[in-house]
Structures are given as C-alpha cells and as structure tokens.
Write a structure and sequence with these properties.
- The complex is a heterodimer of chains A (440) and B (364).
- Chain A is built from 16 helices and 12 strands.
- Chain A has a 7-stranded mixed beta sheet.
- Chain A has 3 domains: 56 residues; 184 residues, Rossmann fold (3-Layer(aba) Sandwich); 161 residues, Response regulator (Rossmann fold, 3-Layer(aba) Sandwich), CATH 3.40.50.2300.
- Chain B has a domain of 227 residues.
- Chain B is built from 15 helices and 4 strands.
- Helix content of chain B is 70%, strand content 2%.
- The chains are: A alpha/beta (440), B mainly alpha (364).
- Chains A and B meet through helix 3, helix 4, helix 5 and helix 6 of A and helix 3 and helix 13 of B.
C-alpha cells in the first residue's frame, strides 16, 4: 500500500510515470484484481525499458549494398576472389566500426556470368532498398545500363569497359578502362621499341569485354600513335596456339597485346615458349613480347603458365602483394583476419574487390560527415566530387581514386609489371595514357 | 456418353467427336475456368514485387517456348538441340528493327503485338528451313542438324557488327492505351500480355492436336513408314512441326526481348537449349500440360537451390566454395532422376492425381 502510494506521489510530482517499480501492491478488498493490473503494468513498463535499451543499442543505421557476380561459371577465377575482397572489407568495416554504429550490409549473390540472373538479382536488390550497387561483368553492366539510369543508382562494376560510360551517368569504373590499359601498353611499345614502327597484334576475348579496347586503339593509331595493328585475334577455346603464333610471326608481329582472361594467355605463352618465339626481354629482336591488361595477369597466370610466364608484361592500377607497400600489408592482414588462403590473399582480384568496397565505404563516410542522409542521390553527388583535394587515396591502388561529372574512371594511372623469377615486379613508375585523352 | 456430364468416371465415348472434346466433363471446364480466373486475378489480390514478377514472367515465356519444343520433340519425335536459337531468332527480329530504326521506333514501342507476331513468323521461317533436312535425316543425325543451327546462330550473332556482336541491343519502353508502360508496372504489364498469349497458344496447340495434322504428328513419331503407307507425308509433317515450333519459339523470343528491354546473345546459347530440353523432359514429353509443368519445375528448382546454396555459403567456412556448385549439381540430378524413374514427367503425376479424384471415393 505504501509502495503504491509512493507511485502515486511520484506521478503527482513529475507528471511522468516512474520507470522502475517495486514492492507489494495488494489490498484486502479487490486485491487480486489490482494485483493483476499492477503485474500487467510492470510487464508493460519492463517491455518499454528493454525496448528503449534495445533501440539505443541499435541506434546505428544499416546501409544496404549489393553485388551480383560470377562466383561460379565463366570468369569465376576472377569473380571468386573479387567477392571475397568485397565481403572481407565490409566485414572489417563493421567489425572495426569504421562507420561508427552504422553498418554496411552487402548482399553478394552468384549469377554464374548469366545476364538474365544478374537482372533478377538486381531487381531483388532494388526491392531490398540498396543505395549503391556493385556489378561485375561487362555484358550485364551494358545490359542494365538503362535500369541504372532509370533508378538513378550509382554503380561500381568490376568491368573496366569504356563503353560502360557511354550514354550513362551512374556507372563509375574503379580504375582506368581496358581501352586506357591497352593504349597505355601500346604507348609503352611505341616509346621503347627499337627500329621502325612496331608491329602489334591484339589477342582478345570473343565478347564485349574483349572487344572493348579494339576500336579505341584503332582511333589512337589514327591519332598518331606510332604502332601498326597487324591483326586482331579473337581466341576460341583453343588448346594450341602454335599455328596462330606462326601466322603472326610471318606477318612480322613483335608484340601481342592481350585483352582477355588468364587461361588463354597462359596457353599462348606456353606455346610461344615451346616454339622459341617468346622474348626474354622487352622487344627482343625476332621474338614476340607478350603484354596484357588487368584480367590477363596476376598470380593465376603464373600458376597456369609456369616458367612460360617469364617476361610477360602486364598493366593494372592495383598494387600487388609481391611488392612491399602499405596497401599490400593491409590486404594480407585482412585476408589473414578472415581466414583466406594464400591464393585468395595474393590475388589482384581480391585487391580489386577490396578497393571497390573501400570506395563504397569512403563515399558513405563522406556523406555522413557532410551531415547528409545516405541515399542513392547523396552517394552519387559525393562520388562526383571525389577529385582534387577530395580524391581518395585507397592504398591498394597506385594512384588516387578520382571521379567527377565528366570523368567516371577511378584510378587514372597504371603501373606496368613484368614477370621476373615467377613474380610480378614493377617496371618504372605509374603512368597514364596520353592518347586516351586525345581520342576522347 | 455418360448421362452425367459433371461426374463421368469412365470412358463413355460413342463417337470420335466426343473423344476429341477439349474438356471431357463440365467439372473439368469449370475447374479450368476457375484456374484461369485465379491466374488473372492473383496479382491484384496479393502483394507482388518486380523480382517475383520477373521470375513468373520468365516461367511463362519458357512455357511458350517449351510448347513449341514439345510439338517438335514430344509429338513429332524429332530431337531439337537448337531450340534456344529459334527463341533467339524471335528476339533478334525485334532487336534488328531496333538496330535499324532505333530502339524507340514507333513500330517497336506502339505496334508491339505486331512485332511479336512478326517475330513468330520469322521464327517459323527459320524453323521450316532448319526442318528441311528432316526430309532426309532422322534421329541423331537430325539432332546434329539442329545443333549446327544453334552454333551458326551463335557465331552469326557474336561476330556480326549488325547484331552488336552479341552485346545488348536495347528495346524502348512500349506504350499501351494508358501511355508509356513505366518501370513500376513493366513486369505486371508483361505478365498479362504473356499470360494471354500463353493461353491462346495453349488452346491453339490443344486444338491442333485434334486436327488431322496433330494426328499426323503422332503417327509420324510412332512409325513414319506406316504413316507414309497410310497416305501421310512424313517429310512435310516434320517440316511443319519445325515451323510451328519455330513460330512459338519466335513469339517467346520477342516476349523475352520486350520483358528484358534488350537482347543479348547470352540468353540464347546452347546451355539455354539444353535447359529447354530438360524442361520438356521433366514436364513430360508428348503431353500438353507437361509444357507448363516443366518450365515451372525447373525454374523454381533453380531458385530454391540458389537460396539453399546461399544459406549453405553462409554456414560453411569461407574457404569452401562448393555451396555455389549446388545449382548445376541439382539441375543435373533432377534430369537424371526423372529419366530413370519418371520418364513420362510431371504430367504423369498430374494424370494420376486427376484419375484419383475422378474416381474418388472409389479406388477402381
């Protein structure tokens, strides 16, 4: 009774209900009824208290992102470590509270390199309320371009195809396009080749991904790039490239620039070595020097080609774990923290995935710091401002990530690597293509 | 004929005409009408989303395509391993108009029913052309001829600049009486369009099987020499079968192009042809309702396995990537199991269920 009065007194004094009650509230007359009422009230108030605590614990927001990619099926050798990179970095962001109490929830789904499945996944992700989408293949990025425009959702694909940016406002390439990579390699050939105009052949994947840079390289040659493109070879699933190499040799080809994935390059390198066509150093006379863009190289190529990979020149904007750097150390630590094997940890596509996740995290962080709500629109605006003093130093790349309204290619510089002693080693300093600007 | 047209439990036919009826009892007709009303009404009652409707639309398109495959493989007994190419022909008919006239060309966006019909006829033309070897070839040899068409189709699309070398060719948004069909109503709109076409095609095939041509198909499948001796033309029957299959595939292809608002070669590869064949087998070759069961079963299976794989991926250690291999594994396993234990497909289960209820509560 006394306690009950205390409750009444408290209520009269503060005008609010006290949060905690204790003591017996039973009276002799109608005691049971009152007891039940008070019990109900206690339970209700306890529930309110627990709920308020729970709400304060989960005060942070959850930002939904999504990635659809080929974890199995064609190109999964690149997609698999890429997915791990994205997954691990977002786990790291959440575990270390890089965004404070806020969390990133990134749904990763396998589409087996099937555009119809990618489309379904994308529609599903939209239903989940994603604010940023990470896509993968060139085909699906090109195919979904219109949906991205209609939905006004920023997209960072794993495809560096320059065509992704045509008639598109919402696609942001992580690094320099395939065109820029191939033209960059061609410029390197033009500068360092001894003798007359260098004769070059292109060895490409029979898809939009492979064909991407062909037209741009042709434009660069017309704009004055001092090389001659002798032949464009669209490879099939050949197990032997000897005939093709002999044909190229008979046409005087000295350099083969590859825009494909590792396995066909490995086959070609092995054949070139077996018939003695592979150059031991850059531009060796009467031999062929092989060079390639991002998806042709990396440790997978060395694993596939073995010693035949020696002297293969490769360009990408990513730092490699074979060379000491802050980014490489952080990558290896991340892989170790989440139990990845050495193969994944040292894959440049693991780096690729980490970098994309880094950019996504950074842009969310910046939007938050601006005091804005994290939405598709605010993320898009912030990505477009990622330049100048606001350029993002990712550590995993050889240059800063920069985007603007007119430039949606992230890292604009490339690093040339060469296989030396079964390890990719840097050749020179990071560079950027001159002719890519001329043909734009 | 049974005196009771509602609950006939046996075969009381006294004329061929009676045997050829679409619905044997009034109950069948009533139930089918009720089912039709349900499939038309459910999206208005239940909450739907774009993903869900995209899956459903895809299943319906596959049903139209498998209807065609069932005519050529199920009813005429001619193995076709290039059915996705015929679907592709339909899709690329729409894409060609888009390529030449622009993706927002009025004929594409406003006269889309005509475009769908045109795609069907182009598909029929290619079907008849590919069917020509049927005059001379049979069994595996004919199957290889259809496989060749699949390969030629893929090669042509992949290497011809006109077809954008297999990259996506966009199709503009279509218009209806209410104006442009926007993103929000896109999948629902196409659900109804595809459903209406499917119902029409279903009835068309059902009626076709009641005609002389329908009986020719089955006769040629069972014994083409005997059919020849009885005055039928096995060669022409086979060509017609291919043309008809091509028509249905072409319509399915055009619908696919409009649904996805773009055409890319990846949707019409050999893998897709094998999937159509699997749908026909699982559904039940040579049965009309098998054409509906198969696509639904295979596509739902794929979705469910995908979900299981996702959960398994979450539970298994990160280093184990086997979870994602569950999909192709389950797909292969289902086909093998059906071929071994239920070669007549799901359609046979449907037959058993119907027989049970027809006789209920008696067992015999």
């Amino acid at each position: 009774m006394q306690d009950c009065c205390r409750f009444d007194k408290d209520r009269k004094q503060t005008g609010k209900l006290p949060l905690v009650f204790w003591g017996n509230t039973t009276t002799k007359k109608g005691g049971n009824m009152k007891k039940h009422k008070m019990m109900f009230f206690r339970i209700l108030m306890s529930f309110v208290v627990v709920l308020s605590f729970a709400t304060s614990i989960q005060a942070g927001e959850v930002y939904k992102l999504a990635l659809s990619l080929a974890i199995t099926g064609p190109t999964s050798d690149a997609g698999n470590p890429y997915a791990k990179g994205v997954e691990d970095y977002f786990r790291f962001v959440n575990d270390t509270k890089l965004l404070g109490e806020d969390k990133i929830e990134c749904t990763i789904r396998d589409d087996q390199y099937n555009n119809d499945v990618t489309k379904r996944n994308f529609e599903d992700f939209l239903g989940q309320g994603i604010v940023l989408y990470l896509n993968y293949s060139t085909g699906s990025t090109m195919g979904l371009k219109r949906d991205f425009e209609e939905e006004k959702i920023p997209v960072i694909p794993a495809s560096f195809h320059a065509g992704n940016l045509i008639d598109s406002n919402y696609i942001f390439l992580p690094i320099a396009s395939y065109s820029e990579q191939i033209i960059g390699l061609a410029e390197y050939v033009a500068k360092n080749h001894k003798g007359d105009k260098a004769k070059v052949a292109l060895f490409i994947h029979p898809s939009a991904f492979g064909r991407g840079p062909v037209e741009d390289l042709t434009k660069a040659v017309k704009a004055g790039l001092n090389i001659e493109v002798v032949e464009v070879v669209e490879h099939g699933q050949d197990l032997d490239n000897t005939a093709m190499l002999k044909r190229l040799k008979s046409k005087g080809v000295q350099y083969v620039l590859c825009q494909t994935v590792q396995s066909p390059v490995a086959t070609m390198l092995k054949d070139a070595n077996s018939i003695g066509y592979a150059a031991k150093s850059f531009g060796e006379a009467d031999k062929i020097t092989f060079m390639g863009a991002h998806y042709t190289g990396g440790n997978d190529l060395i694993a596939l080609a073995g010693v035949a990979a020696e002297n293969f020149f490769w360009t990408t904007s990513y730092r490699l774990t074979s060379e000491k750097s802050a980014g490489a150390d952080a990558q290896l630590a991340l892989a170790k923290k989440y139990g990845r094997d050495d193969k994944a940890a040292n894959s440049h596509n693991y780096t690729n995935g980490i970098m994309v996740a880094q950019v996504a995290t950074e842009v969310i962080k910046r939007v938050k710091e601006n005091g804005q709500k994290v939405t598709r629109s605010s993320l898009y605006d912030e990505l477009n401002q990622m330049n100048g003093a606001k350029a993002f130093e990712a550590d995993t790349t050889v240059g800063p990530v920069t985007y603007s309204k007119t430039d949606h290619a992230g890292v604009d510089v490339l690093q040339l690597y060469r296989v030396d002693g079964s390890v990719f080693r840097s050749v020179g300093v990071p560079f950027s293509s001159e002719y890519i600007k001329k043909i734009k | 004929m049974s005196a009771n047209r509602w609950l006939a439990t046996g075969n009381y036919f006294t004329t061929y005409k009676e045997e050829q009826r679409i619905f044997f009892t009034h109950t069948d007709r009533l139930l089918f009408s009720f089912f039709l009303v349900c499939v038309f009404v459910w999206p208005l009652i239940f909450e739907t989303n774009n993903t869900y409707m995209l899956v459903v639309d895809n299943i319906l398109i596959a049903m139209i395509a498998v209807l065609g495959l069932n005519i050529v493989t199920g009813f005429a007994g001619l193995i076709s391993i290039g059915h996705a190419a015929f679907v592709g022909v339909g899709a690329y008919t729409v894409a060609s108009v888009s390529r030449v006239m622009g993706n927002d060309y009025i004929f594409l966006t406003h006269a889309w029913p005509l475009m769908i019909l045109l795609s069907g006829f182009v598909g029929a033309g290619f079907g008849a052309m590919v069917g020509l070897p049927a005059f001379r070839l049979k069994h595996l040899y004919l199957a290889i001829a259809t496989l060749s068409f699949q390969m030629i189709f893929q090669w042509t699309i992949n290497f011809m600049e006109f077809f954008n070398q297999g990259q996506t060719i966009f199709i503009g948004r279509v218009f209806w009486f209410t104006g442009e069909v926007g993103r929000n109503e896109h999948y629902m709109f196409w659900y109804y369009v595809i459903l209406i076409i499917l119902v029409l095609m279903g009835f068309m095939v059902r009626n076709l099987l009641r005609t002389r041509f329908g009986r020719c198909l089955i006769a040629v499948r069972d014994n083409d020499r005997a059919a020849d001796a009885m005055g039928m033309h096995p060669g022409l029957t086979k060509v017609y079968a291919f043309a008809l299959a091509g028509f249905l595939a072409g319509v399915a292809g055009a619908l696919h192009a409009y649904l996805y608002r773009g055409v890319g070669v990846e949707s019409f590869t050999l893998k897709a042809s094998i999937t159509y064949l699997a749908m026909a087998i699982v559904g039940g070759l040579g049965t009309l309702n098998g054409s509906f069961w198969g696509p639904a079963a295979i596509q739902m299976l794929e979705l469910q396995v995908e979900k299981i794989a996702e959960h398994a991926g979450d539970m298994l250690p990160a280093s184990i990537n086997l979870a994602t291999a569950l999909r192709p594994l389950a797909f292969g396993l289902v086909i093998v199991l059906f071929l071994m234990f239920e070669p007549r497909g799901i359609a046979n289960w449907w037959r058993i269920v119907r027989s049970y209820f027809k006789l209920w509560p008696f067992r015999y």
